[in-house]
Amino acid sequence: MTRRGTSKKLKNLRSAISALALGAGTALSFAPAAHADLPGADAQLTRAPYLSDATTTSVQVSWATTTQSHGSVRYGPIGNCAGTTATSATLGSPITVGTTREYANSVALTGLSANTGYCYRVYTASGTDLLATLATPSFTTPDSATSTAPFTFDVLGDTGETTNAGVDDGSLNVNQANVMSQIASSGARFVVQTGDNTHPGTSQTQYGDLNQTGVEMSSWFGPSYWTQPGMRIPLIGTVGNHSMTATYLSVWKQSALAAASGGVWGMVDYPSYLNSSPTSYPTSYYAFTTGGARFYMLDAAWGNSNTGDATGGSCGSHCAIYEQDAHAHWQDGVAEYEWLKADLAAHPSGPKFAFFHFPLHSDSASEPSDAFLSNVEQTLLGGGVDLVFNGHSHLYQRNSAGPGRIVSYVTGGGGADVHSVGENGCSATDAYGIGWSYSRNRGSACGAGTVPTDDAQVYHFLKVTVQGTSVTVAPTDSLGRTFDVQTYTVTP
Question: Where are the beta strands (DSSP E) in 157-306?
């Protein structure tokens, strides 16, 4: 099926958002004064509620409105959705989307139990139900650390761009909309984002809202994008080189996960490296265990415009940000690297997965392999990490294991403009890679990859299913077609 074959469905995409997002299987009746871009919602709602910082006992619910108040959430186990009320101690934080003043709200739901379904609704302080006639969203908390039950999570990277088919005119990014629609129905317990939620930078305007459209506007919270899965699937993530402002931290709350693992989720002051400017960057590294598997969310990123005298070594200017990141995060004695080594040692057994932005191995000409992370790969390998998931390169690539190498994935096709693979040659470790060139209007492939005939085949996410020591990674393109499905036996 080609992307043209989905045009009829896409015409009705926005009116179907509610059913896709909430997944309750309940027929919706829309009020006459329904929200223009999220039918059934109250007109005050500008960002649909979305979930983050999911633990076995808590989750963060965030949303935005046209009015400022103490936001509240009524929630409870399935069947008693209004049993508990949590209200923000502070008024909604003012944000500006385009030229519009809005108010961001965030409330932590606590007292939850592992592997349990909950439902919730969001309200203003005056009691207005912001979901109005929409069905009540629900989610399931992560499994306990010792659970042996199978579970599924998705991996997504490099999203949030208004470019469609290589043209950035602010129209609907069809491929990103389709990727997020597929995630909404994937059965994932949570989604891991490997960095760069928005492109080309990070701002409240780029994250956007339900109402406004335009070039580099509403590329994440637009009604056809994260609105679909976000109300019921928590997102867990880390920073990328395009998210180097405090906006990232204000949008994505992950402080509970960071605190529980002794990690960091906040602004950190960095000194000058190689004559870069001293700066403060959002920094995120932490870990958690669910279903017997340890997840490592690492900070391997640096801002594009602050490279000082870094040359990138033999790789050249494309790798100057890699060189700066290595100085900031991956030298002996540096906080993140020491934390990682200690946590790996403290968790000697069980499956382990690592997620970070810059790629260990990539056959992208503009975002190539990060040779400055070679010591990190050895540390992860020695610490028993089974699989690594990276972003940054806007393509799909699976790299094989070997002496001194871990199986690693580059998943950079979540919605940002995709790129070619193998323009400068395909590496011997590239087991399967696919990409797309808009300037040449053709696909490319490495290893066992089949040359794509449409860009929709390159936009994708990874569906990962863990069943004890068996892990299956099923890359899924924007139209729901799986490819290069692999099953691994991981550390018991």
Answer: 190-193, 235-237, 264-270, 279-290, 293-297
Q: Which residues of the chain have pLDDT under 70?
A: 1-36
Token pair 């499994």 in the structure block, residue: 143
pLDDT for the residue numbered 37:
80
**Domain-by-domain residue ranges, the chain?**
3-140, 151-489
- How confident is the model at residue 492, as a pLDDT? 85
Give the DSSP H or E segment for 257. helix 255-260
The DSSP-derived string for 278-335 is: PEEEEEEEEEEEETTEEEEE------TT--TT---GGG-GGGHHHHHHHHHHSSTT-H
pLDDT at residue 479, rounded to an integer: 96
| Residue 129: per-residue pLDDT | 98
* pTM reported for the whole predicted model: 0.92
Give exposure, 292-331, as e/b (b: 16+ Cβ within 10 Å). bbbbbbbbbbbbeebbeebebeebeeebbbbbbbbbbbbe
Query: Is 3-140 a CATH 3.30.470.30 domain?
Result: no
> For residue 345, what are its two tokens?
């040692």
Can you give the pLDDT at residue 30? Answer: 27
CATH topology of domain 151-489: Purple Acid Phosphatase; chain A, domain 2 (3.60.21)
Q: Which residues pair with 59 in a beta bridge?
A: 109
Note the pLDDT of residue 34: 34
In whole angstroms, how far apart are CA 120 and each of 26, 241, 490? 15, 34, 36
